[in-house]
Amino acid sequence: TRFGRERGGDSIWDTLPCTEKYDGQKEIRKRPLKEYIDQSLTEEELSQYLVSDEILAKPWAKSLPIVSANDTMSHCFTAVYGRVVHRATGALLLTDADHPSVEEHPELIDRNDMTKLSGGRLRKFTPKELLKIFGYSDGFDFPPNISLEHRYKLIGNSVNVEMISRVVEVMLYQ
Q: Would you say the C-alpha torsion 149, 120, 138, 71 has a positive or negative sign?
C-alpha cells in the first residue's frame, strides 16, 4: 500500500501528530476535553447552551451521550447538534469541572433518573469549543451574521483540520 511498511516507511497511523513514543511503543496521546473548554464564558453566555430540564425528563434522555471535562473521547458532532438533542448528534458536557471521567466511571451517572443532571449541570459544547476540538486555530471565527444553529451545522459538516493536514502532508511528502 502507499503508506504501508512495504514502501519502506511507517504506516500513516505511525506518523500522525497525536502519537508519541512510550517505552518504545506508539501510544495515542489523548488530550482531556478540558483543554478545549472555554473558561471565560459568563453565566449569561453559558445559559444558551444548557440542556433544559424538560429534555432531561424525557424517557429517551437516558441514552444521551455525556462527557466530563476529564474525558479524552467524545461522540462525533453532527450538523444537527445545534438544533436537536439526540443520542446521535453529539456529546453533552457535564458542567461539574471536577467530575471524574465518564468513560472511566460511567456508574457515576444515574441513567434511570436524568433529572439529577437538571439545573444547569449539562450543556452543549459551544461552537468555539468545537472548533478547537476540530483543530481550527484560535484566531478562526465565524462572521457575526452566522446564526448559532448555522455555526453548529457548518462545524458538524466539517472535518478535523489537524488530522486532514497531517494526512495530506504524509501523502505529499512521504
A: negative
* CA–CA separation, 125 and 173 (whole Å): 36
Q: Is 41 exposed, middle or buried (0-12, 13-18, 19+ CB in 10 A)?
A: middle
Q: Assess contact for 162 and 136: CB atoms under 8 A.
A: no
Nearest Cα neighbor of 135 from 104, 87, 168 is 168
Q: Pairing relation of β-strands 66-67 and 25-28?
A: unpaired
Q: Are 28 and 80 in contact (CB under 8 A)?
A: no
Distance CA 125, CA 91 (A): 8
Give residue-wise pLDDT tens across range 90-103.
999 998 877 888 88
CA angle 89, 104, 162 (to 5 degrees): 55
User: What is the CA angle 151-44-79, rounded to 5?
Assistant: 20
Span 62-82, pLDDT tens digits: 999 999 998 888 888 889 998
Q: Which of 116, 114, 136 is nearest to 126 (CA)?
A: 136
Cα dihedral sign, 138-144-149-154:
negative
User: What is the separation of C-alpha 39 from the centre of its chain, rounded to a whole number of angstroms?
Assistant: 16
